[in-house]
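Same chain as my last thread, 216 residues:
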Amino acid sequence: MSQSTFTILLGGEIQLTDRLIEAVAGTRVIAADGGMRHAIALGLEPELWVGDFDSAPAALTDAFQHVPRQPYPAAKAATDGEIAVSEAIRLGARRLILVGALAGDRSDHALQHLLYAVRLAEEGFDVLLTSGTEEAVPLIPGTIELDMPKASLFSVPGFSELIGLSIENARYPLKDFHLPFGSSRTISNVAEGKVHFTLQSGRAIVLARPYDFSGV
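reply #2:
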């Protein structure tokens, strides 16, 4: 088991895929409120359960009554997910896998997870957000590599103006590109295998759909 890789179980929907199961295998686990339901589907045993428990049904509470809980009032200054991440960092996390971060009824939470992931990356943490069928990785100044199936879809929405953006090993490569804030130029690209991203300045997220080959 990796002592510095933590899976954070959030409330968004997930789909069981090989990539998701492989990503969380051997990690330490913290559940945020109703995200605990994913522990059953993934066969995980959280070491801590945090939140105000307003979205955790009684059956879930009974099933995991042995897991230590850290309750918070409903009127709090942070989401259950951010609290769970803070606890993981306190316990030594350097890599964070946010499961259930990208889908569900609350688009405000999904957007906040993406923004928070970028901030965590700027603080030096390795972050992956996943629903099983969709994955997201922060892109900040520097270089990252994303291992994707050939012909699968990905996009790079910017959270700011992007300067010096390069995308290699994709159907629509870019080199030292200036992407204005709000531009759709980097939406719906197609991977040719491992895709390399370089950025000189700005903040973005790589949204990948490893099981989506509709761009073929």
